[in-house]
């Protein structure tokens, strides 16, 4: 498996709401990735091993004592990303509508998982890097000892 997923790539949804995972991210995701709701209006695509780690404490929780608000909100918009024989995954209409996906998707490598953004949201939010944002990012990186 690739050590890290970095960079971004754009892909189109076809007329049947199918898309392909960009080649540069395939190895990092492994064989059975999952999609999950992300922060700020994106969707995450996460390798199976990471999903197991993220939610390991929830697997055996008692449904009467666990945080059902959180699990309902997250898990009702999550699932296994299943590909057809041509390597295309279908974006469920509910998920497409929930996240506002139209025609173009932007896949963003976040080291060990992907963010998937509607191109319009991505371009509005990150399309132009202004110098003030770059300075803030550099300051934030210093907090991590980079």
What does this structure look like?
The protein is an alpha+beta fold and 146 residues long. Helix content is 34%, strand content 22%. It has helices at residues 23-29, 48-54, 68-75, 93-99, 119-126, 131-143; strands at 8-12, 18-20, 34-37, 43-46, 79-80, 88-90, 104-109, 114-118. A six-stranded antiparallel β-sheet has the order 1-7-8-4-3-5. A two-stranded antiparallel ribbon has the order 2-6. The longest helix has 13 residues, at 131-143. The chain is globular and about 50 Å long. The two termini are 25 Å apart. 18% of the residues are buried.
Strand order of the largest sheet: 1-7-8-4-3-5
Instruction: State the helical fraction.
Output: 25-40%
Largest sheet: 6 strands, antiparallel
The best one-word shape is globular
Q: Averaging pLDDT over every residue, what do you get?
A: 89
> Based on helices, strands and strand pairing, what is the structural class?
alpha+beta
Compressed to H and E, one letter per element, the order equals EEHEEHHEEHEEHH
Characterize the quaternary organization of these chains.
Answer: single chain
Through-space gap between termini: 25 Å
- Gyration radius from CA atoms, angstroms: 17 Å
Q: Which parts are unreliable, with pLDDT below 50 for 5 consecutive residues or more?
A: none
Strands, total number: 8
Give the helix tally.
6
Strand content: 15-25%
């Amino acid at each position: 498996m690739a050590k890290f997923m970095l960079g971004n790539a754009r892909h189109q949804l076809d007329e049947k709401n199918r898309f392909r995972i960009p080649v540069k991210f395939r190895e990092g995701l492994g064989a059975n990735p999952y999609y999950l709701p992300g922060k700020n209006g994106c969707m995450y695509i996460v390798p199976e091993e990471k999903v197991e780690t993220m939610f390991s404490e929830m697997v055996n929780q008692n449904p009467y004592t666990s945080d059902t608000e959180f699990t309902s909100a997250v898990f009702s918009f999550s699932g296994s990303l299943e590909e057809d024989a041509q390597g295309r995954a279908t974006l469920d209409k509910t998920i497409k509508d929930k996240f506002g996906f139209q025609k173009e998707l932007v896949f963003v490598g976040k080291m060990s998982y992907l963010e998937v953004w509607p191109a319009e949201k991505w371009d509005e939010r990150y399309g132009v890097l202004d110098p003030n944002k770059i300075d803030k990012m550099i300051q934030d990186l210093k907090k991590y000892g980079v």
